[in-house]
Write a structure and sequence with these properties.
- The chain has two domains: 30 residues; 156 residues.
- 79% of the residues lie in helices and 0% in strands.
- By secondary structure, the chain is mainly α.
- The radius of gyration is 19 Å and the shape is flat.
- This is Urate hydroxylase PuuD.
Length: 190
């Protein structure tokens, strides 16, 4: 049993298989939000990718950034060379797939235009969507390019690395700030 849980791919596959079983067995109580399987799968994917994205955002801001100053210098390369690049991979792709599934979900409900134009009855979800789009832009256009410099993934002088790390942190904190009203809008829109 221990070998199974040591293999993340197998654990994820088993979790997916259990979720599919909930969908296909009529007595499980599963009902897609609108009665349509595609919408149910899009909503499920949107929540899964959103948890991945925002969970890592909170990890960076609540754990990694505040803890790094107290990490001994000889241990910092373990974070900057191994942990941070892996976390940033899931962070940025979680952002991309959260936005993609969210846009597809809004389109499937025929409310994409109203949401993006902040029109009723989709105004609140639209506010959440715009906040998420700003946050995803920050991830891909500002945080990730600056993190590549700060982590030494792309060459940069020490002063440029320090500036890039600060810029990435400020925009990561901006995303933390925006995530709070974004989550309110997303979870309370009807």
């Amino acid at each position: 049993m221990g070998k199974f849980f040591e293999n993340l791919g197998l654990v994820l596959f088993a979790g997916l298989a259990l979720a599919v079983l909930l969908i296909v067995f009529p007595d499980s109580g599963y009902r897609a939000p609108t009665g349509e399987l595609l919408n149910g799968l899009l909503q499920w994917g949107h929540v899964f990718f959103g948890i991945t994205w925002i969970g890592l955002l909170y990890y960076f801001n609540f754990v990694q950034i505040p803890t790094m100053p107290s990490v001994p210098a000889e241990l910092k390369p373990g974070v900057s060379k191994y942990i941070a690049p892996a976390a940033l991979f899931y962070f940025r792709w979680g952002a991309a797939f959260t936005v993609l599934t969210g846009l597809l979900l809004a389109w499937s409900y025929s409310e994409l235009k109203e949401a993006l134009m902040l029109q009723e009855p989709a105004r609140l979800i639209g506010i959440g969507m715009w906040l998420a789009l700003i946050m995803a832009f920050n991830v891909w256009a500002i945080i990730w390019p600056n993190q590549k410099k700060a982590l030494g993934i792309v060459p940069a002088e020490d002063a440029a690395k320090a500036k890039a790390a600060r810029t990435a942190m400020i925009f990561s904190r901006t995303n933390t700030l925006l995530s709070i009203p974004m989550l309110l809008a997303m979870t309370n829109a009807h």
